[in-house]
Structure formats: C-alpha cells, structure tokens
Amino acid sequence: MINGQALCPACNLKKGSSVTELRRWQADALVDLLRNPSDFLCVATPGAGKTTWALTAARKLIERGEITGIIVVVPTSHLRRQWATAAARMGIQLDHRFTNGNTVVAKDFDGVAVTYQTVAASPLLWRRICTTKPTLVILDEVHHAGDDDHLTWGPALKNAFEEAARRILLSGTPFRSDRKAIPFVRYDEERKAVPSYNYDYGQALMDREVVRPIAFPALTGQVRYREAGATVSLDLADADDERLSKALASALNPTGEWIPSVLRRADEELTRQRSEVPDAGGLVVAADQGKARAYAQILARITGEEPTVAISDDPDASELISRFAKDSTRWIVAVQMVSEGVDIPRLAVGVYASRIRTEMFFRQVVGRFVRMRGTEDETVATLFIPSVQPLYGYAQEIEKTVNIALAEEEERVRQELKEGGVQTSLQVDLVEPLDSSEAVHHATILSGEEFTEAELQRASAAAEQVGLPSSVSPAQVAQLLRMGGAGRVIGTATVQAPHSGSDQGRTLADQKATLRRLINKKVGRLVYATGQQHSHVHATLNRIFGDDAKTATVQTLTGRLDQLDKWLEQA
C-alpha cells in the first residue's frame, strides 16, 4: 500500500515491475539525503552500490515532486552506457548518446548521461538544460573535477549546475583538494572533502555483503638503467625517492625479465582461483598504451589465449570491456579505462604495473577486485604490486580501516551511553631502462599483515598435508597458523571519535538496537579473524551473560562488547 500511486497505464509501466531492496547503508544514506536539501556528497567503497543508491534517490525525488529531470555526469564514455543501462532497469530512461549539438533533450527521456568533458565544452548549454525544469544533477566520481589535467572542469561545473534544483555527488575514495576546490564540495581545515555520508572498505568488509578480502604479494628484483652515461644497478625494494621512478621504469619495461615473471606468477594464481571459480578473470593495469599491448603479447605466450586490450585509442574499448565482463576469458589489459566505475565482479587477480603512485588511484584499482558476487562468495582477491613505497604502505593501510571503523562506532556508542542520552604522481625522467631480473617475492600483505615467502611455503605444505581446497590461499593458511600461536601479536588501530551529542530524546529500545548492531559487526569481525561460526560466538555470549541479545539489558549488552574486544585482541 505504501507504494500505491494513481497513475495512467503508461506511467505505471514506466515504473518497472521490480522493487529495489536497498542495503542497510543505502537505506541510511537515502534517509539522510531526503532530510538534507543541500548538496549531498556520498563516499562509498567501490562495489557498494552508489549507482543503485543514486538512482533510487532520483526516483524518490521524482515521486516527491522535487525534480522532473536528471543529468548524470561521468568521467568516461563507457560509464554513460553503464548508467543508462542501470537506470533503464529502474524505469528511468537516460539518453547516453546525447551530444551538445542536440541542444535539447528528447521528451521521451527522463534525462541524459554525459561526460565532464562534454559539460566543460559548453557550460551555458547545460545551465539552460538544467534550469528549464527542476533537475537533479548527479556528479559521478566527482573527485576528477580536481585533477591537475582537468582544472577547467571545476569552474565549468559551477557555471553549468549552480542553479540546479538538487545535486548529488558520488565518489569511491576519500579525496583532498590539493589544487582548485571542487564546486559543491565542503572541505575541513586540512582541505579534505567532508562527506555527507561515508561507507568505507572497513565497514563494507564487516558487513560481508559488498566486498571481499584482498591479498597483496609485493615483488622486488634487480633492475638496471643508464643515466648520464653511467649504468645504475639496484634492488627495486631499496630504491629511494630519487631513484624510484627510474628503477620502476626499468622493472615495467616489457623487454626485461621482471614484468614477464610477474605476469607468470599472476597467471598461476589465476589458474588456482579458476579451479574453484571457473570464470575468474585477471586485470593488468599498464603504464601506457604501448606497454599494454606488449604485456598482452607476453600473456598470450604464457596462456595460449589472446587477452582483451582496452585502451582509449580503440573506439570499441567500451564494448570490449562489457564483453570481457560477461565472458569467461582469462585476462584484460588496460591503462586507466577500468580504474574506477567499471563493474567486472569476476575479477579476482590483478597486476599493478602503473607508474601512478597516488593513493586515490591505487584504491580505485583495488576497488576493481574486492566486489563480492553474492553472500556465498568466499574468494580472496590477489593484487601483485611492486615492492616500493608508497604502494607498499597503501596496501598495509587498506584493511586497517576495518579496525578504525569499529573503534569509531564503539567509541560513539559508549559516549552516547555515558552521556545518557598531498597526492603526487610519479614523474619519469629521461632515463634509458636497460633490463631487470625476474621478480622476487618480498612479502604478501593480507588484512594488514605481512607474510614472508618462507611462511607461505610452510603454509602451502600444511594445506596440502591436511587436504585443504585450492580456493584457500597460502596467505590465509599462514594467517590461521599465526592465530594458532605461531605468529606475532597484531595491534589494532584506534581513533578518537568526534563528540556526537547527547542521547537525550532517544528511546531505550533505540539505544539497545544500536548496541546490538555494533555487537553483530564485532561478531562478524571475530568470525572473519578466527573462522568460527556466528552461531557459536553468539551461543558463547549467551552462556556467559545468561540471556540473549533480544532480552539483554544495556548493562549486559555493553558487557558483550567488552568480551568481544578481549577476544578480538587475542585473535
């Protein structure tokens, strides 16, 4: 009954025949958006469902009579089609073939999907289109408007859309304003964007609905290059800031031994993954188009199968990406076309062979591999990286957001109860890369922990001895061996949560519901860390406190949190 509307047959059919069930974070963010009439920046981890959320929000705003038109702005042409396809499934028709020469949107479309370049080319046209009728503007991956190469996009967006009825801004990664501030985004005193709603990788991993764990084998090796007539030889892992760009260029040179050996390792890992998931795929992110083609030739020799090559010079690149997402071939090689926004859930193995060392780009690449394919997806993704800083540090930090998310939420809940109520891109010098040795395994990073080659070999032997399936990676076995007493104590990250105000006005039932949600998240983290069953953990808590979560008091619920903290520290 709550969805009942008096509509003509055509409008009724336009709504579609399905109801979108939102994830919890999407429902919470939607409530915040509908309460907040100002610009809304939603930062959510790749794969969380930002597109679905934004389109659901658009439908709600249409139903409330706040808007009658939609403009979706995206960074690449491929994403135009992706948005239009997703919108059509929800009964919203977006013209993804619109050009500035059209000047007006056809009446049988609800809106358009265009690129930032298109808007920047004619901002006054888009100002007229968005003011002709009440329009919602959705700026996807809005951080691109602050890129060094696109500094004209910001002023164009402001000129085009400052009079729009509503604006939704989307991003998959937290971002800073190190150049020109992006219009419609709020910043804190450290020039970091302030989201209206944030759903990061740590929160998503705890929910076990959106993202999967990921391991980072970090590979080193000997490289040589010539500079000013002198030949320099060093270990990739030992390269300092001054020599790193030159060493990395030598390692990524397709004529050396390093990158072919990395591709062989990655293909072996993909074969292991495909023994359990037959259509698992791999992605190589190359530094430039020439290297992308060269890497594809190397992979063809290794696998006997021609990989897909998606580069911007190819007019069919978007179609090739879509085809790869649906088929079961092994590898796709790209430069930046699949760094963000592109949804290929079957990706399980990757090689980071890009020269870009910014945290934002690295996280965007990681986002291609962590999307779950359903609640039964037990895959642990693998991304091979050069053993260099800052990439090595980024890999260590990524999963630490899990502990930070938990610490923030617990601190906030306990405080409420107590109260009663700068990115830098790598610049490659004019240096002649000579050659490189085969890649040497430096360490694998899983859940923020480092596992050496010796540990992984012992883990592989143990897994073979007890007959574990091939889907269980050596890093996972090594992690379990450490938990069994063979490893070191791992610290947990803590942060100081901001003051969140009094609980005055909140009912006791609401307070207890918040505590139960936090308990469930901590139980999920404990299950992830130890391999226990959810039911076993809850049964043990019931036995200790003499009640169950439904009948527990606030006192015994907080006692459960304390007990879970002890168990997590031991784990």
From TrEMBL:
Helicase ATP-binding domain: residues covered: 31-192
Record-linked InterPro entries: Helicase/UvrB_N, Helicase_ATP-bd, Helicase_Restrict-Modif_Enz, P-loop_NTPase
Molecular-function GO terms, alphabetical: ATP binding; DNA binding; helicase activity; hydrolase activity
SMART domains: DEXDc (SM00487)
Alphabetically ordered keywords of this record: ATP-binding, Helicase, Hydrolase, Nucleotide-binding
Cellular component per GO, a single term: cytosol
Key word ATP-binding present: yes
Superkingdom as given in the UniProt entry: Bacteria
TM segment ranges: none
Nucleotide-binding listed as a keyword: yes
PANTHER family, sorted: HELICASE ATP-BINDING DOMAIN-CONTAINING PROTEIN, TYPE I RESTRICTION ENZYME ECOKI R PROTEIN
UniProt-recorded name of the protein: Superfamily II DNA or RNA helicase
Record organism: Thermomonospora cellulosilytica
Taxonomic lineage from the root: Bacteria, Bacillati, Actinomycetota, Actinomycetes, Streptosporangiales
